[in-house]
Amino acid sequence: MSSADSLGPGPHSTPTEVRSRVAAPIDQCGHAVTVKASARGQRATPSIPDGAERARDVVVIGAGQAGLATGYFLRRLGLDFAILDAHLRVGDAWRHRWDTLRLFTPAFYSGLPGMAFPSADPDHLATRDEAADYLESYARRFGLPVEGDTSVRTLRRADGHFLLDTSHGPIAAEQVVVATGAFQTPVVPAFSADLDPRIAQLHSSQFTNPESLATGDALVVGAGNSGTQIATDIKEAEPMRRVWLSGRDTGLLPRRLLGRDIFRWLAPTILRVRTESRMGRLIRTRTMGRGDAVLSDAHERMVAAGVERVGRTVGVRDDRPAVQIGSGEPALEVASVVWCTGYRPDFSWIEGLPVDEHDIPLHRRGEVTAWPGLYVVGLHFLSRLSSSLMGGVGDDARHVAARIASRRAST
């Protein structure tokens, strides 16, 4: 990722200084967009519709990587906007994940538009706290108007605008970007309720460290990158504890190829593939059916630690989890189960929003087709295979911001 853009503000710039240094608006094709005088510089204060306490031209919901990248381009286009986030600090979504989490994308592919991820080693795999602090620094550097500790309860259309019911009162907006990310509602199998209540169960979103588990052996369900990391951490922390990793084989991806990090090869090729292309559809179908391939370095660390790899967890037998081992399905004696079984999208808080069979809003490259003025950013496969990654979300953020400016100019 390139260094900070010369048009971006310095680390101590104020919002006023930022507005005086924005670039001329451009659309997604790079053409100039003419914005009315009220939308730039000496702009009129948005009128406050009935039922709202304040109004903004644009509201971005979520101050994670997708929301901040969108804010970066909205700032450059000189638009009036606010970024709302339920967490107190930018980056807290990362800080609340498990202690030893590391990104699986290297530093050179973990930066957002205008600001490279800070690392002396471009192949460095950032820790949880490094990722969180980077996002916080990014918001500060570009003077992004983040309103923390502000949750959005509902979003609905009302009389030509959008009305957001937030924890700090209702807000009206002409346009809204939903950037709540790819990780929304944790998923665990229904049969988990049938396990012995003495078995401690938690989803990966609740796991913090091995000390948070009950004393005794552990089963980690879900053999993707997160499950592999967590199972290895548990085993390395207490080598005498038996740790099983359960799940279908999702395949292995070499960490390095011909002496270079694999993302040096993927970033300009596979990760740039459009979702609607034939190859994109094939990769999406394969990934949604099997999950992401595990990086080989994580797999090798797991094997070295002594984690026992088994097949899928298929149900409950004698109040214990039953897993596939060879031709049998024995029940394991465990004290804890960590469910690394992913998340499902949840847009139920947007009243009346049309969604597809996967509960994803019907959209065209982030523009919700049935609701003009509503956008989504940061979802898996939004437009490319990299749309949910820190190094790939910028393309969609740029496109959506340009569409917002174009729509604003035409009204």
What topology does this entry show?
Elements lengths: L14 H5 L34 E8 L3 H12 L4 E4 L7 H4 L32 H14 L4 E2 L4 E7 L2 E6 L2 E10 L6 E2 L13 E4 L14 E4 L3 H13 L5 E4 L5 E2 L2 E2 L2 E2 H5 L11 H13 L3 E2 H10 L2 E3 L2 E5 L2 E4 L12 E4 L3 E2 L18 E2 L2 E2 L5 E3 L16 H17 L2
Parallel strand pairs: 1-2, 1-6, 2-3, 6-22, 8-18, 9-10, 9-18, 10-15, 11-14
Antiparallel strand pairs: 4-5, 5-6, 7-19, 12-13, 16-17, 20-21
Helix pairs in contact: 2-9, 5-8
Question: Could you explain how this protein is built, in words?
Answer:
The protein has 411 residues and is an alpha/beta fold. It has 2 domains: 15-184 and 345-409, FAD/NAD(P)-binding domain, CATH 3.50.50; 188-250 and 291-340, FAD/NAD(P)-binding domain. It has 9 helices and 22 strands. The chain has helices at 15-19, 65-76, 92-95, 128-141, 225-237, 262-266, 278-290, 296-305, 393-409; strands spanning 54-61, 81-84, 146-147, 152-158, 161-166, 169-178, 185-186, 200-203, 218-221, 243-246, 252-253, 256-257, 260-261, 294-295, 308-310, 313-317, 320-323, 336-339, 343-344, 363-364, 367-368, 374-376. Strands 1, 2, 3, 4, 5, 6 and 22 form a 7-stranded mixed sheet that branches. Strands 8-18-9-10-15 form a 5-stranded parallel sheet, with helices on one face. A hairpin with a 2-residue loop joins strand 12 (256-257) and strand 13. The radius of gyration is 23 Å and the shape is globular. Mean pLDDT is 87; it is low at 1-42.
